[in-house]
Amino acid sequence: MKVQNKIFKIIEAIETLERIPSNYLKSLKGTNGLYEARIRLGSDIWRVFCFFDAGKLVILLNGFTKKTQKTPHIEIKKALQLMRKYYELKKEEKS
């Protein structure tokens, strides 16, 4: 429950702050708009991938506990697939 509360606080910061500190939200290079929200709770580090739709709506994708310095490529790939699926479904709804 503590992790969930911390995630909500980070999301609230993303929604309300004009400039979001990079220790909360980091753009992932070469991913066309994918971001990594960073949540630290004690010695645990959580990551939640997200992106912005129309500059305002924050879409949360997948999350995981980070155990190494580098973000696992498989987690980035999963997030990109979810982001593509979101845009495909959105496009279908408009048709």
Tell me the total number of β-strands.
4
Helix/strand structural class:
alpha+beta
Q: What separation lies between the terminal Cα atoms?
A: 40 Å
**In one word, what is the shape?**
globular
Oligomer: single chain
Compute the CA-based radius of gyration. 14 Å
Can you offer a commentary on this structure?
The protein is α+β, with helices and mostly antiparallel strands and 95 residues long. Helix content is 39%, strand content 32%. The chain is built from two helices and four strands. It has helices at residues 2-16, 73-94, and strands spanning 25-27, 35-41, 44-53, 57-66. Strands 1-2-3-4 form a four-stranded antiparallel β-sheet, sandwiched between helices. A hairpin with a 3-residue loop joins strand 3 (44-53) and strand 4 (57-66). The longest helix has 22 residues, at 73-94. The radius of gyration is 14 Å and the shape is globular.
Task: Note the topology.
Elements: H1 2-16, E1 25-27, E2 35-41, E3 44-53, E4 57-66, H2 73-94
Antiparallel strand pairs: 1-2, 2-3, 3-4
Defining key terms:
single chain, 95 residues, alpha+beta, four-stranded antiparallel sheet, 4 strands
How do you describe this structure in short?
The chain is α+β, with helices and mostly antiparallel strands.
